[in-house]
């Protein structure tokens, strides 16, 4: 319990700092369209000021009519119609300006959204490849759908709605003051009570609101757990227990919600009684009558003030939402900014050409945040040879392999190709030199032909097909209704194995002298494993290959086998040399044991 | 296209608890009538203020008295209207949260797909609140607005038919303009939706394929992305133009009412048909009243928004669980599984299984093999009655699954599937789920056999570590070990096992094999098999063809001896196992 309290208080001070930061981020985000937003604000302000005009015209019309009526003469028809047209004109102009202002900010928001998306694409294109992982796509979707949407609500609406909601009541009130200060006081007579009650109801609200947030996320996570675990729960006939847990969370939420919202609703209902049109008219007309009888004001003035007073409360509620919206948009802007901030790998200004295709890893250390992934690793790979990396998951195999394709730069040490540090090779040349086939085939939504020719857009269909043939996928592509023009999307229904062989054909066509293979068969159905294996055999011929495998037997032919564990190399040599090495022996033994265990199981039954 | 009305849907959502809701609606109508009368009463009050001694026999102070009475009654009515609306929103929250929970617990497993959990969680955080808002803050003011409009029109018509008509005639026009503009807005949105989707998926593709794109020199620029973003921006501008046109139309229409009122009032006053102050009051009231009409438009849009959430909620609540008998019959052959001429498809047009028949004797091991998409997993799901078959019968324990209660079918089965879900709680809690009444010793033995002990050693707080929602702190292989430990502990007569991911890491395999041996000794094991050892050791191998029919079935020795799909499959697997680069 004590922990909870401490958490909440730090969360609140954190919130304040975050709100300030968010506001700054919001201002930075809005900078490119500031001019247009100000234009929207100005138009909204004019529109707010114009809201006075119809009432002023009403007073003038009333004066003309009343005078004539009292003097029993014909009213000045021209004057009346003139004021009527002023009234109608001002009323319409006011709406039109407001409408134009909103359009301006909406189009400005469109520009901003387009800019953010472009910036997002730019920063994705520059970020080190090591920063992409399984959560990248979720992050991007969240950012464009939630954060950019939140910004839209603020930028497209608030400059106009907020400005109008501020200027209009001030202008209206100022107008009543010019009529008569006593009428002005009358027009806001009930507002202090309204605000007083509202303020009273807000006491202690912010803590409760913070608590609400946790309750909501609590219900939602119990709901997720309940829904995603339901298969397990049902399978074990335990849905009752899980349901109880969920219902407890739901009840807790509703109780909390009622604690939070119930009093608020009651107080608001009481407060709103003091801004009801009937009360406002009764108070203003009664008070106004006394002022008329005392000779301070005319009846049309009372009527105009009364009608104006009825307009005041409707603008108040708008401003209330503003603070909250600003805070939301601020944190959205902050998140967008953070996502856009990437440090691209430095590109050399004086590129050198590698002399040959050997790979040298020299005392390399690398870490992901606080976790060390590679610790002082050194390894040489001779040109045209195959090196296999083996070891348990998390031992640093993939990190080491991808660093050779410069997914990132090592914190210490160097990696070089043909004697040249990767950092001194132009990135185009590096990508021409090092190719990779990873677990995910990374096919784009384009025709199969374009996917295979991604690295060589000028390749002829014949060249593309030759690569596909070498990857043992040509017949299967030709069997598709549209052959090589088939566009790869979720609906074509290519199997994982087929996709992986298309990726291999792409690598074949690209024909890089150095190749990195990271568990290319790991995520495909066992049925197509054999076909991928054949394709891989074709691919590795005549190249410098670094391959990651989970079975030593799959890479017995490797020129060198590297056993890794906890970010370091524990042994290095051919399979024969390493046959006695503890790790290889253990792995071989486990594989062997598997077969025996399975067979024993069979006999046992 | 227009379905049942929103009001009806809201009543349905309250599942019988409509008393409060109806009361709130009634109060809203009364409140609207009072507001309408207030607007109407301003005019005679203004007349008496401006010199007329009485209107309808009442003097100024009497009219103010009427306004005061209206003020007090509107204060009281509005208070109860707010509170009852809020209470019915709260009722809805409670009914919806509990209703969804009960519904989820009763729906067949087949209903739960990939995105279901995410969608439900969005429901809890977003949709629920949106519908609640609609109950508390939109529906009731909408009704109030409508009632006050009708009241005002009626009183005006009684007072002066010309003014009444001026108020009433534009209303259908307004309504038509509102409809037309909402159609234009939808049109703009439709243009946008596809383009927006295309742009986001290109952006996601650009990120997830960044490695390939960059290494192929295709990332600067990636033309499909640039095109999609440009098309989206152009589309948004186009859609904005539709929006501008729609709002313009709407705005013009809503100005029609006050402008025509003002003109008519001015003309009537000049003719002497209206007293000067009555004319001015009329003009002022129509200015204020146009706000009410505009607010109603905005609320209508808000209600339309929350309608999507409401429809989702109702669609879940309208789902029906698979029918089951009140009592299961006694199983006749514990541990037996039988497919009897089963035909099944997820949709009517795409059958997955054709006329499949096979039998698993108690305590035997059945291996199902076949290419992806041949219906292997579907068969396992039919055994657990995720769905009902289209034709034929699935029998578990000798009895049609449809003649048993869902919990009784579940009691006979253990499932070890690919997607393993772990609950918040310790590893022990998660294993114990298999058989809550098991002793600590039994739980530990199962944990040991499945290799969960090794996971516990790795975790920061050992056995006491909370493995978290969905078990994110554990690798796929580790999660599967927990799931196997559950199955070992449960000792169900039938085990359904999917080997797909088990081949991933070597250490995992040892544990899985040990557990398999144990399970085989006590249960019927039906396994979607990938490993040669498993296949070879099965009592019966079922070979599924690509079209979802059973191609061959028999023992390994028999099937390998004859040419056919199995032999090809087996030889391909052998080559894959012995492959080296």
How would you explain this protein's 3D organization?
Chain A: It is found in: Cell inner membrane. Chain A: GO terms for molecular function: ABC-type oligopeptide transporter activity; ATP binding; ATP hydrolysis activity. Chain A: InterPro entries: AAA+_ATPase, ABC1_TM_dom, ABC1_TM_sf, ABC_transporter-like_ATP-bd, P-loop_NTPase, Type_1_exporter. The complex is a heterodimer of chains A (605) and B (581). Chain A is built from 21 helices and ten strands. By secondary structure, chain A is of the alpha/beta class. In chain A, the strands form two sheets. Chain A has a six-stranded mixed β-sheet, sandwiched between helices. A four-stranded antiparallel β-sheet of chain A has the order 2-1-4-5, with helices on one face. In chain A, helix 5 packs antiparallel against helix 6, helix 7 runs antiparallel to helix 10 and helix 8 packs antiparallel against helix 10. Chain B is of the alpha/beta class. Chain B folds into three domains: 174 residues; 113 residues; 135 residues, P-loop containing nucleotide triphosphate hydrolases (Rossmann fold). Chain B is 64% helix and 10% strand. Chain B has 19 helices and ten strands. In chain B, the strands form two sheets. Chain B has a six-stranded mixed β-sheet, with helices on both faces. In chain B, strand 7, helix 16 and strand 8 form a beta-alpha-beta unit. Chain B is elongated and about 110 Å long. The model of chain B has no long low-confidence stretch (mean pLDDT 85). At the A-B interface, helix 3, helix 4, helix 5, helix 8 and helix 9 of A face helix 2, helix 3, helix 4, helix 6 and helix 7 of B.
